[in-house]
Specification:
The chain is mainly alpha-helical. It is elongated.
């Protein structure tokens, strides 16, 4: 119980501990990244199931978004512009 730590095989050196800790952190980061990617794909699938688009036909009036200027959104309501 009170033996010398120099003869104890379970005691790690500082360098061994750091290497082991870094390896464990990298593995945890990879696992977290793969779980986040999988969750994002699942959320996208569920969202796509619920979203329903509106069918457009030729001649329907639509709303255009002009994003020419960065950061500004200019809305143009259909006057003469029609979906083609």
């Amino acid at each position: 119980m009170f033996g010398s730590s120099l003869r104890n095989e379970e005691v790690m050196t500082y360098d061994t501990y750091v290497d082991s800790f870094q390896r464990d952190l990298r593995e945890a980061a990879k696992i977290a990244q793969s779980n986040a990617t999988e969750a994002q794909k699942k959320q996208a699938r569920e969202y796509d199931k619920r979203v329903k688009g509106i069918p457009l036909e030729v001649g329907d009036c639509v709303l255009f978004v002009n994003r020419k200027d960065r950061g500004k959104v200019n809305w143009m309501i259909c006057g003469t512009q029609q979906y083609m």
